[in-house]
Write a structure and sequence with these properties.
The protein has 2 domains: 13-194, Ribosomal Protein S5, domain 2 (2-Layer Sandwich), CATH 3.30.230; 202-339, GHMP kinase, C-terminal domain (Alpha-Beta Plaits, 2-Layer Sandwich). It is 29% helix and 24% strand. The chain has 10 helices and 12 strands. It has helices at 104-116, 138-153, 160-170, 174-179, 215-228, 251-258, 262-266, 274-280, 284-293, 315-328; strands at 13-31, 37-56, 87-90, 122-127, 182-186, 191-194, 202-208, 270-271, 298-301, 308-312, 333-339, 345-348. It starts with 12 loop residues before the first strand and ends in a 16-residue tail after the last strand. The structure holds 4-diphosphocytidyl-2-C-methyl-D-erythritol and adenosine-5'-triphosphate. The site of 4-diphosphocytidyl-2-C-methyl-D-erythritol has 19 residues, from strand 1, strand 2 and helix 5. 4-diphosphocytidyl-2-C-methyl-D-erythritol (CDM) binds next to strand 1, strand 2 and helix 5.
Length: 364
């Protein structure tokens, strides 16, 4: 990890990373009056990371507002306001990511800056390591990393619980990207309970698709399919419409996660959004079939898709499955990852220019 502690003009910079998530269980309830759906989910953080660096623009705006404690030396650029912030995005899919104030990392910075009563100008640099609009919470991870980094830059000193509360205001997946590990998610996904015993390493093949899928669109498609009470391929005959299956309870999965048997875990994975993602993107059926034929223990769509996940027994197995999927040409890119890993954390912040914090990114 590069230790870009100072920007070229010498202003202090803080870099944080946050992980992608997968949902080992994603049970979706009916639409609520506020437009969200109640979820029962088992989140797991995996070893793919977004990296966000925040720094004062100019010669050290850290002197502004409540930023004094962590700020760089110098007079500071004051009063310019959030509109003047610079947002740069690099890495795969960067052109699809907004660089205005709708960017989730920018929204995170705005939230904490307002809380700090600061008018410092803050530059935001995002490096994408998670697919954009891929159902792995890439934007949410940006928000999580930005919260952790900005908290440090502005010297707010919010604890993890307070950061998770701010995170929930930015998006349903953001609190989990702050926390990491393996956790039960309820509410709209923002209420978390860590599953401490679920530590056995899991190896997963990640098959990326060409274009993203919009999360609200996938939820809306699920509502539509449920209302129609037909299977996504429309195969049901008139009068014989079947309701879509719904994921059941999570207890058997939670129990299996306490053990060390990848096949037992794989047999209990579920995603209620999968029929909706397949309905919007039928080509994913072929991807799932290819992974099954390659010998994966289980294949499924990741969250709202279109990324597909293939669960394997160990790393060698995952590498073999990944090679076959890659060769078949069904995916834009194939990666091997593992989980659980830890949540958002600082990787670089040292005004003295020495070593970083030394936090183990696996969170172990
Ligand atoms: C599909 C998942 O990734 C599973 O973890 C999440 O539920 C989505 O989380 P997210 O991308 O952080 O979603 P948000 O930014 O909070 O919401 C985006 C949109 O997704 C839909 N949405 C999201 C979460 C939820 N529990 N019910 C929903 O219906 C809503 O249309 C909402 O307007
Ligand atoms: N920092 C950001 N990074 C990526 N996308 C962002 C960001 N801020 C806003 N967006 C917008 O949000 C949309 C969703 O992107 P994201 O990568 O978070 O999807 P996702 O991984 O499918 O999300 P989730 O799994 O949480 O539903 C994109 O179309 C993008 O335009």
């Amino acid at each position: 990890m590069p230790r870009d502690v100072f920007t070229p003009d010498g202003a202090r910079a803080v870099t944080a990373v946050a992980p992608a998530k997968i949902n080992l269980h994603l049970g979706v309830g009916d639409a609520r009056p506020d437009g969200y759906h109640d979820l029962l989910t088992v989140y797991r953080a995996v070893d793919m990371w977004e990296r966000v660096t925040v720094s004062f623009v100019g010669d050290g705006g850290g002197a502004s507002g409540a930023a004094g404690r962590g700020g760089a030396s110098g007079a500071g650029a004051r009063g310019a306001g959030p509109d003047d912030d610079e947002i740069t995005v690099t890495g795969p899919g960067a052109p699809q990511v907004p660089t205005d104030r709708t960017n989730l990392a920018a929204r995170a910075v705005d939230l904490l800056r307002e809380e700090a009563g600061s008018d410092a100008r803050i530059a935001i640099r995002i490096h994408k390591g998670v697919p954009v609009a891929g159902g792995m919470a890439g934007g949410s991870a940006d928000a999580a990393a930005a919260l952790v980094a900005t908290d440090r830059l502005l010297g707010l000193g919010l604890g993890r619980a307070a950061l998770e509360e701010r995170a929930a205001r930015l998006g349903s997946d953001v609190p989990f990207c702050v926390r990491g590990g393996t956790a039960l998610g309820t509410g709209r996904g923002e209420e978390l309970a860590t599953l401490l015993h679920a530590r056995a390493e899991q190896h997963v093949v990640v098959a990326l698709a060409d274009d993203g899928l919009s999360t609200p669109r996938v939820f809306a498609e699920l509502d539509r399919l449920r209302a129609e009470r037909v299977e996504p391929e429309g195969a049901a005959r008139a009068g014989a419409a079947r309701s879509l299956p719904r994921a059941g309870g999570v207890e058997p999965l939670v129990e299996a996660l306490a053990g060390d048997d990848p096949a037992a875990v794989a047999a209990l994975l579920a995603n209620d959004l999968e029929p909706a993602a397949l309905s919007l993107r039928p080509a994913l059926r072929k991807t799932l079939r290819t992974g099954q034929e390659a010998g994966a223990l289980h294949g499924m769509v990741s969250g709202s898709g279109p990324t597909c996940l293939f669960f394997c027994s160990d790393r060698d197995h995952a590498i073999a499955v990944a090679a076959e999927i890659s060769e078949s040409g069904v995916a834009r890119e194939v990666r091997v990852t593992r989980g659980p890993v830890g949540g958002a954390h600082i990787v670089s912040d040292d005004p003295s220019g020495g070593a970083g914090t030394g936090v183990d990114p696996t969170g172990k």
